[in-house]
Structures are given as C-alpha cells and as structure tokens.
Amino acid sequence: MKADAFRDQVAIVTGASSGIGRALAIQLAGQGAKVVLAARRAGLLEQVAVACRQAGGEALAIPTDVADKDQCRALVEKTVAVFHRLDLLVNNAGLAVIARLEDYSDLSLFQHTMDVNFFGAVYCTYYALPHLVRSHGRIVAVSSLGGKAPFPYNSPYIASKFAMHGFFDSLRIELQRHGVSVTIICPYWVVTGFHEAQMDKDGVPRGARGRAIYSKNMMTSERCAQIILQAAYQRQREVMMGPGRMIAWLKLLAPGLLDRVVIAFLKATVRREQENALRSQA
Ligand SMILES: NC(=O)c1ccc[n+]([C@@H]2O[C@H](COP(=O)([O-])OP(=O)(O)OC[C@H]3O[C@@H](n4cnc5c(N)ncnc54)[C@H](OP(=O)(O)O)[C@@H]3O)[C@@H](O)[C@H]2O)c1
C-alpha cells in the first residue's frame, strides 16, 4: 500500500474516541484523508481530531451514539454536507458485557450490546450506502475472533459479532455489482480501552482490572489499524488475526474440541488476570 493510499478520500470511523478507531483515524489523516470521527465522548473526539490535523489530514468530530438510528443518519448527512462524498465507512464502535445469561436481572444489556455492535453497524451502513455506491467505496466491519467461535460468559458480544458476519457476508455479494467492497476484520486481543470498558451484569465497567489480562506481546492499536487499512485498501474479504485460522478450522472439523480449547484458554486468562492483579498490588 502506498503511503498516501487514502489521500483526499473521505472516511467515517465509528468508535474513533479511543483504541483501534482512534489509531485508524490518525493513520488515515496521516495519509491525507478527510476523517469524520464518531463516538459518544465529544471531548475525546475533539482530541483525536486535533491529532488527525497534526498528522496532516482534515478531521471533523461528530458526537454520535450509533445505537440511535437518527444519529447515524445525521452522521452520514453531515459528512456529505461538509466533504461532498464518502469513500470509506469503518464500523468499529463496540462494547462487551461479561456475565452468565442466568445472572442478568433483565435483558437490557444484552439488547444494548446488539444495538451498538450490530444495529449500529447496520444503521451506519444503510445511510452511507448511496454515497459509497457513487464512489465505489469501501466498507470495513470490525468484528472479532468472537465472531468466529463461541466464548462463554460473553454471549451478547459473541451473538452481535456472529450477526455482523451474517449481515456483512451477505451484503458483500449484493454490493459486488456496485464495486463496493466489504472487509470483515477479526482481531485477536489488542491493547485498548476495551477490556476496561467491559461491563459486568449490572453495567459496571471492569476498570483497571480489565487490563490485567494483557500480556507483553499483545498487539497495539496502531499495528491493528495498519493491518485494517491495508486490508481495506486491497479490498480483502476478511482478515483473521492471532489464532483465527486454527479456530475456524477447529469449528468446522472438531467443534467439541474447540469448546474444550476455549475453556482451557479462559482458565489460563483468568489465571493470568489474577497473577497480574496481584503483581500490580505488590
Ligand atoms: N481490543 C480488543 O482486544 C478487541 C478484540 C477483538 C475485537 N475488538 C473490536 O474492536 C472494536 C474497537 O474496540 P477497541 O478495542 O478499540 O475498544 P475501545 O478502546 O473501548 O473503543 C471502543 C469504541 O467504541 C465506541 N463506542 C462504544 N459504544 C458506542 C456507541 N453507543 N456509539 C458510538 N460509539 C460507541 C467508544 O466510544 P465512546 O465510549 O466515546 O462512545 C470507543 O471509541 C470493537 O468493535 C471491538 O469489539 C477489539
């Protein structure tokens, strides 16, 4: 990919206030793109907009809750009103809740996860579509390896990511005739604010404890953003990071074995979280 592959292209990045979305926005701006930043935290978005301008691009922050259809429509309308076109939509906004289904007092957090992770992407894509057809543009859907494999205590998140695959895999075929590409990204763990923001069954974020699962060699948001932009530029179908290919094959050939691998992985993660938490207290 050339260093200025996205020069003068207009891109919307949802979930741009932190983590992978923030890194994507700054890298796009560094290539000379005009970047529209969407997320709920307006103050953080403005800071990312400043970083984008310093990187060499134009940036417009539009505070948006992607769970709200009308706000997604307004996001696209304002983008086109200011920049007159749209070339790239990155559906990246996402969150997760960690709880057993039986422990929820009601299903509002389950619904909310679907509303943000799945319907947020559907709304933005729907309103962006006429403009992307006009520009023969690109859609990126940031899913997860959780869109490929089961993971206990995480069922709303996993359901929302599986739903993204069904939707975007189908849409890719519909959009072939318009020359609009759909690239699904399945990151493995990336060091961001994601695990701090993860909520428990009552909607309380895990906070600093969420970071205790990280180990030294985990991917940075900057590296993840590089991989995403390269894949979007090349109009790749899907990118699986980390053990993604192994998971996909296991699911196909030995789903029972995959369940056992997932449980072993979960136990190792809980152990690492406890060890890291103890170390940080010492
Ligand atoms: N980090 C990982 O290990 C990992 C692994 C696999 C997949 N992913 C996926 O990567 C994507 C980005 O996550 P991240 O790791 O960069 O986490 P992050 O740092 O927590 O970023 C999540 C972003 O989503 C935004 N968001 C949440 N709810 C929103 C809403 N209702 N409307 C608009 N924006 C909303 C947040 O902004 P506001 O709070 O300001 O709204 C934030 O900018 C997510 O889709 C996640 O599922 C992450």
Task: Describe the protein in words.
- This protein is of the alpha/beta class and 282 residues long.
- It has a single domain (10-244), classed as NAD(P)-binding Rossmann-like Domain (Rossmann fold, 3-Layer(aba) Sandwich).
- It is built from nine helices and nine strands.
- The strands form two sheets. It has a seven-stranded parallel β-sheet with strand order 3-2-1-4-5-6-9, with helices on both faces.
- Helix 1 crosses helix 7 and helix 4 (108-135) packs parallel to helix 5.
- It is globular and about 50 Å long.
- It starts with 9 loop residues before the first strand and ends with a helix.
- The mean pLDDT is 96.
Distance between the termini: 46 Å
Sequence of secondary-structure elements: EHEHEHEHEHEEHEHEHH
Q: Per the principal axes of the C-alpha atoms, what is the gross shape?
A: globular
The CATH architecture can be given as 3-Layer(aba) Sandwich
> What is the average of the pLDDT values?
96
Q: Can you tell me the residue ranges where pLDDT is under 50 for at least 5 consecutive residues?
A: none
Could you tell me the strand content as a percent range? 5-15%
Domain module count: 1
| Helical percentage | 40-55%
By CATH's scheme, which homologous superfamily applies?
NAD(P)-binding Rossmann-like Domain
What is the number of E strands?
Answer: 9
Number of helix segments?
9
Output the strand order for the largest sheet: 3-2-1-4-5-6-9
* CATH fold assignment: Rossmann fold
Largest sheet, if any? 7 strands, parallel
Chemical compounds bound to the protein: NADP nicotinamide-adenine-dinucleotide phosphate
Regarding quaternary structure, what we see is single chain
